[in-house]
Amino acid sequence: MQQYLLSLLLFTPLLAALLSLFLPATSTATFRIITVVVNVLQVMFLLVLLLNYQAGAGLQFVELKPWITLNMGNWGILKASYFVGVDGLSLPLVALAVFILFIATIASWKITQNVKGYFILLLILNAAIIGSFTALDFLLFYLFFEFMLLPMFFLIALWGGPKREYASIKFFLYTLLGSILILIVMIALYVSVHDPSTSGQLVHSFNLLHMADASNFISTSVLDPHRALQLGPFSARTWAFLLLFFGFAIKLPMVPVHTWLPDAHVEAPTPISVILAALLLKIGGYGLARIAFPIFPDAAFHLGWFVGLMGVISIIYGGLNAMASKDLKRLIAYSSVSHMGFVLLGLASFTAEGTAGAVYQMFSHGLISAMLFVLAGVLADRTNDRTISHYSGLAGKMPTYTAFILVAFFASLGLPGFSGFIAEIMVFLGAFKSAGLGGPLHESLAIVATLGLVIGAAYYLWTLQRMFFGPLNVKGDFSVDQLSDLNRREYFILLPLALAILFFGIFPQPLMSVIDPYAQHFAAFVLETGKNLTLTP
Amino acid sequence: MNVPVHHFLYLGAFLFSVGLVVVISKRNTILVLLGLELMLNASNLNLVAFNRLHPGNLQGQMFAIFVIVVAVCEAAVGLAIVLRIYREYQTSVPDDVNELNL
Amino acid sequence: MDAIHTYSFLFHFCLVAALAFPLLSFVLSFYISEKYSWITSVLASFLLLLGTLASAVVLYQAWNHPPFAYRLEWFSLAGYSFSAGVYINNISALMLFIVTGVSFLVHLYSVGYMAGDAGIQRYFAMLGFFTFAMQGIVVSGNLLMTFVFWELVGFSSYMLIGHWHEIPAAAEASKRAFIINRVGDAGFLVGLMIVWAHGHSFDIAALQHMPVDPTWMTLASLGIFCGIVGKSAQFPLFTWLPDAMVGPTPVSALIHAATMVAAGVFLLARVHFLFTVPALHIVAVVGCITALLGAVSALAQHDIKKILAYSTLSQLGLMVVALGAGSPQAALLHLFTHAFFKACLFLAAGAVIHSLHQAQHQSHVHFDVQDIRNLGGLEKKLPFTFLIFVISGSALAGLPLTSGFLSKDAILTALVQWHGEGFSWKLLILAAVALVSFLTVVYTFRMIWKIFKGSETATAQLHISEPPAVMRAPMAVLAGVSLWIWFSWNPFNFYGWMYTNIGEAKPFHSGMVSIASAIWVILALGVAYVTRQVTVGSPLLLNAFYFDRLLKQFVEKPILQLAALTHHADKKWIDGFLHATAYAQLIVAHLTGWFDRAIVDGLVDGVAGAAKGLGSFTRSFQGGKIQLYIFWATFAIIIFIIWTLL
Amino acid sequence: MEHLAEQLSSIKASFILLGPELVLSTGIVVLVILGLIKKIQKTTLTAMSALTFVVAIAVSLALSRSMAQESAALFGGMLRRDSFSSYLGLLIDISGLLTVAMTWRRQQLQRALSEYYALLITITLGAHLLVMSVNLLMVFLSLEMVSLSSYVLAGFAFSRKGTEGSMKYFLFGSVSSAAMLYGFSLLYGLTGTLDFSLGEFTRPLIDHPSPLFFIAAFLGLAGFLYKMAAAPLHPWAPDVYEAAPMPVIAFFAVVPKLAGLGVLTRFTLALYAYGQSSFDWQFVLSLVAMLSLTVGNFSALWQKNAKRLMGYSSIAQSGFLLVGVAAFVPQGIHYMLFYASAYVVMNFLVFLYLQYFESLGCTTLESFAGSGKILVWPAVFLLVGFVALTGLPPTGGFTGKLFIFSSLWDAYQLSGKGVLLWLMVFGLLNTVVSLFYYLRIPFYAFVRSGEINAKPNYLTFENLLGLILVLGVLYLFFNPGLLMGWINKINFVL
User: Which intervals hold domain NADH-Ubiquinone oxidoreductase (complex I) chain 5 N-terminal (chain C) (predicted)?
Assistant: First the structure.
């Protein structure tokens, strides 16, 4: 079974979705149960995966099956494969995905409208997310990447808040724009790259590993690193990198292409917000680390400062916006923008610390943002009002809720003991160290980024002060009586999240030992290759 | 009498242009159809005239004959449509037939 | 470390126990049902007592033995190990004991003080956690771990200052304290980044051999100093400390004595070797400013706790000056003595407040019990508290025969030695310190006089009784250790057992300084007595030079404005219209605002607008008139042909 | 001069290779005759025309199997049957069959059904001939065959608007073909031959390039562009689409387009002369493609009527198809054929359901509101169709676009022409714009709430056919190899 683990993870939800399709829409409970069963199965597969994973052994659980092979005569053979595998980058994210999707299913219990459609879309989304994190073939990745769009669009547009139509379309357009940028590069890449394992015949491969090897570029191609064609101010490779970068940055999201996020979050139903923040954003960072940086290390090296700068801008701009937000969900959404800036900064450092920090941040932010959105959802469920200024002194009325809020807020602002701290400090160390190792980031970037910590503390504590402290008082169209404390289901959604955040904050080693070999390899690879390719005329 | 080929071509071009202008500007559909005929005949003139350049090759003349036939068909279809238009709209001014827009 | 000393199992056990008991207290508090919440208070105090005993054993075993170092790998990355190290030498063992001890006393005191409070579980939980975090800083042998506990101290102080969260001022002050600390911590983090980039280790022992470029070293040490400025409430990040007085008084005692502000000075002493000479000069100047500022501001305060808070500021300033002057021992000595007498003062002040509150509660008279203008003549009603106040106040003032005299003497001596011969700016600092010690006497005397002497005013009608024994006992203990005897046999010579063992002893002691200092203090006492009726009515001093308002005006407000601006800009994206912002007063704001409107806004609005515009343009050829279609097509073809041919 | 006997035998041989066309011609005659019978069942007519298409498909398959892959010149070089034209012919026949299937659902509403079918088959026949033509005369005749029948068919809604559409189509079409004819006449004069596949045709053009030649060739192209509804000869499309019956639009969106594309491919390749031409036809085609994409996509943003929206969509799709030709690399043509095949499937998928919804009263976009909640399957299938037209995975539309644009990238690498890079970026970004309007109908159907008078009925003919088409669209994504393997065998020679 071991060699099919990833396929099992991937196809179980799809099969379940197919099964659900043929069940009558009236038996609502069935769909919930099917989804939970899928989640349980996925957790079991994941456990087997984790137990058999060997840290430092590179890609594992690889499945490589031919998918599309087209013989185009003189032009060569077009080859795409079903190629999946996990390594230190994808394993934490796959684990996160399985965990968060489970949480999201439980959080979806209260969905009453069109249950069948909802859970089918959720299952499709599930498969697409897992697929994106495991695919090692560009075409396959792109398939999953695009596959997330439509379910997400409908999940927001059908089950969302009052401005859901606007938000969903904005989400869709933005993300599609990003994916088109990626598509352009994908086309350019696979035409330019050949599969080295086949001699004699020219095989155009979608294999990401082949693309990441500079010697696999066909020498006549525009993207050949040794014959960088100049197009306007940049070389073709730099352009390609920029397209990929912006494509993924939209997903990340990075300032200034972030505005879809607050809207999508504010309007999306709670479980979807959770998935959006915890998983979909990570695909941006994952794409950068898996595709953009390794394939164009020279361009990445050349533009590393820019990537880092955008990261810092995101950190601060996102933080400032969060500070001014009047809606709790919007605040959390902006804090996501701010936190994902660390991923950019870490990756751009070209150091093991920075890379590990970036991956850790993706994992940790997945947990923390999930918790934050669940919490925001709890309040919205009670009163349908998330305006910060409408609340005051909730601590007395909802003590357990406030306790979880405290955990989530302090975890998010990077208090030691919570997972975010490890991630952020690693990013800082890496980013600062970068210049000393010949990396692209100037020291000042890391120093300016520390402002983000202060701003983060400011907006969270201010929110605490405004909403939870002071005398109990509410405004708006609801009464204090509606503010009941957490019920059991909510409690059991939040508790595992809080424990996980705490666990990975206090015991980083299990996760770090998985990330470490990857981070070292990544940093060394991009730095060395980036430098070498840049030096070759 | 030896008229150079390009004179025919000028005439053809002139006929074509006149036809086009008629098509674009006339307010009566029948006249528009006439303009169309002019345009077709401009080509016919060309095709026949080019025989001068390619003597022994009858393709041009052949073509012209076909064009004449096709033009008849076209006129037939066109007139039928105009009749229908007149029945529906009580007008034969193309500009007034513009319910399909935007 | 030539002789390898093997530490006994008992030592290990007690070390773990000393740290574990406070943490246990924190954890257990959650498991006690709300009905029996009073158990928490007793249990917590008991656990802290055990912790104190354990730390006493640790102190005993470690005293004057080679340092105990233990490294546990926390996690590793890229071949580097991020370890959680423990490093115990005389200083840390002593500090551990003092922290745990003072904390125990505060716990004990709180049993009485906080009895009946609704959030008592939360209170004791955080108190335990606060102690644990501080202990972490003390025993940590690793800068990263220090930073971890450093932040945790910030967190627990946030929880404790804001304990009475229903009071808006408490919520505000706690937030402020945390954020200002965060500002310092950001600097600390920069220091850590520099250290890591150059040394690849956070281990304090290993860092001593780190070869570093002096510029980076200076920057690193200044970065770390930023953290210290935040935590030890130095200029300019001191405003949170007076504000934090809204928290429960025992918490103030803890913060001021052992657990929070002490952390900065302690750390500064511990990483003193990292500091380069220019960095130390800055340290000295900052300390001096803080000391002066605290002392003058204390003169004008009316609130008991505020007076004490500003006095802490100024005392901390003194310690930092001593550190800047290159004498960690003097600073530490003062830190230790200060821990006792300041805790004692706060507890005593708490006793006054507590008693008056109780009395007020019975008689339904309402006035601000913390305002010394409302007080007076309490000597008779609260004799025990008065005695405690006098002893600990003398220590604060640095009167002979108290611990404060000794440690202040040590600082002065260090400064005298530091400034060397001749005339330099260092002399100014010395003078300032002397002035501070003079002022300290004045405001301390004035405070005690106003509370206890004179005639009763507002309190005359009240039936006031001494606080319960559970509160009195800790006060008595702390007053006891405010005497000289615990620090040096000779009341005029600080060069006692403690001083000589907390650092490389510098054999420099000038009797002259002691005598001069004693005379100076007595003189100050005289001046204080003479001017006891004079009130310093300067609002400037009352508000500590309006520093927090300054911060508000020039830091907070612009940031909020900036935030509002960016948000506004983001919003406008969505709504699709612009309007002039009232916040655009600053140039920066203008610039970012412009950027956002022009570039960021432009994206969606622009793209959508352009798309629609283009759409209506391309559509405009589609007017439904067929001849026009033909015309346009002809036109397009002609254009096409011309364009291609040219 | 050949002997008459030889000529006759060659004509006889040609007739054998003209099997599908003969079948279609027979079909026309039979249908016209059947139409004379007063009491004929409408179903009989439908069955008859379906049969015609089925037989035509069968014959073409048999023919392409039996024929050696060499291309064969028919009737003394007037037509050429090769694998390229056979494939396009097959696509056209399949489209015809699907149109008949769509018509079947509304045959009771259709007046003059026998003429309707006869015209449909006539257009198919004309399209067949058009893609086979290598002679300008033949091109003109078959194009007119398609056009004249189309003009009439466009008015087969027998409504006011239908007549108007018919007239506009007629006037615009006649002018375009007149212009084309004028261009042809000049070309004849410049080259001395009407057979553009011959070297004689291209040689003088390479040797003596003159602007006149460019003008002539461009005028010729204009006729094809008009047939494809590509900019700048597109304005008729939305009007005609709005007015004609739904099956007719579906048919118009495919058959004349593919026929025009086929002949345009042959013609431009001849003009391009393997890059020896002094005129940059690549540039011209790229420009046309970009213009079509822009006009189609951006104008469609505003539309409120589903049929009209599809009119603009069809303009934009012509742009995409032209991209494959503009690459001027062999695999570009192959990829274009792949996209064309996918286009047939997704186009009919969309129109099938648009007709279905039209029968329920959904004509404007707003009227689709709420339909997705009651008619789940039709709405989902329609969504798949639109997703495919947008070009998102996992549909054949995506694969087609991927292929087309990769050949474009290849062409860019070969030639280094900036315009190709722009075309690529521009074309792909247009996808985002197209998404905006393609998703509007599903958006109304699923997201907006509204009333619709219908009962969910899963077992309809539409759903069966729709399911087949959906599976086809998905299959083309997951296993493009099968179709591509077939297309790859197409040996493209002029």
Answer: 74-124
Q: How many domains does chain C have?
A: 2
Q: Are residues C377 and C462 in the same domain?
A: yes
Pair B88, D163: CB distance under 8 Å: yes
In a domain, C530, yes or no: yes
- C620 with C632: CB under 8 angstroms? no
Nearest to C220 by CA among A469, D429, A460, A443: A443
Domain of B50: which CATH number? 1.10.287.3510
For residue C539, tell me if it sits in a domain.
yes
- Partner residue opposite D480 with nearest CB, options A68, A176, A231: A68
Domain enclosing residue B53, as ranges:
5-93
Higher pLDDT, C353 or A1: C353
Same domain, C521 and C377: yes
Q: What is the domain extent for residue C179?
A: 166-547
Contact status of D223 with chain B (Cβ, < 8 Å): no
Q: Do A and D make contact, counting contact as 3+ CB pairs within 8 angstroms?
A: yes
Segments making up each domain of chain D, as ranges:
282-494
| Distance, CA of C25 to CA of C319 (rounded, Å) | 32
Which residue in chain A is spatially nearest to C563 when comparing CA positions?
A320
Among chain C residues, the shortest Cα distance to D215 is held by C641
CA-based diameter of chain A, in Å? 79
Question: Which residue type, as a one-letter code, is found at position C483?
Answer: L
Residue D150 has pLDDT above 90, yes or no: yes
Q: Which helix (H) or strand (E) holds D226?
A: helix D211-228
Partners of C619 on chain B (C-beta within 8 Å) are 102
Nearest to C619 among B98, B100, B102 (CB): B102
C444 with C587, same domain? no
Residue C79 in any domain: the answer is: no
> How many distinct structural domains can be found in chain B?
1
B95 CB near a chain C CB, below 8 Å?
A: yes
The answer to whether D299 contacts chain C (CB < 8 Å) is: yes
Unique residue bearing structure tokens 């669209």: D473
Interface touch D232/C612, C-beta < 8 Å? no
Give the largest CA-CA distance in chain C.
Answer: 115
Which of C526, C547, C568 is at the close of a domain? C547
Q: Do C537 and C570 share a structural domain?
A: no
C605 lies in some domain: yes
D264, D321 Cβ separation under 8 angstroms: no
Q: Which candidate, C269, C233, C409, C244, places its Cα nearest to that of C337?
A: C409
- A202-234 burial, b for 16+ CB within 10 Å, e for fewer? ebbbbbbebbbebebbbeebbbbbebbeeeeeb
Pair C559, C494 in one domain: no
Token pair recorded at residue A24? 């009558």
Residues 6+ apart with CB under 8 A from A57: A517
Contacts of residue C247, defined as CB under 8 A and 6 or more positions apart, other chains included, come to C160, C161, C162, C163, C164, C170, C173, C174, C255
- D334 close to A (CB below 8 A): yes
Going by C-alpha positions, the residue among C100, C123, C101, C126 that lies closest to residue C113 is C123
Chain C contact for B32 (CB, 8 A cutoff) = yes
C615 pLDDT band (50/70/90 cuts)?
low
Residue C426 has pLDDT above 60, yes or no: yes
pTM of this structure: 0.89
- What was the ipTM of the complex prediction? 0.85
Do A375 and A402 form a contact (C-beta atoms < 8 A)? no
With an 8 Å Cβ cutoff, are B63 and D136 in contact? yes
Q: Distance between CA atoms of A40 and A35, rounded to whole angstroms?
A: 9
Cross-chain residue pair B95–C627, CB shorter than 8 Å:
yes
Residue C433 reports pLDDT greater than 80: yes
CB contact under 8 A, D402 and A173: no
Q: What pLDDT does C579 receive?
A: 30
Number of other residues whose CB lies within 10 A of the CB of residue A244: 26
- The reply to whether C398 and C280 lie within a common domain is yes
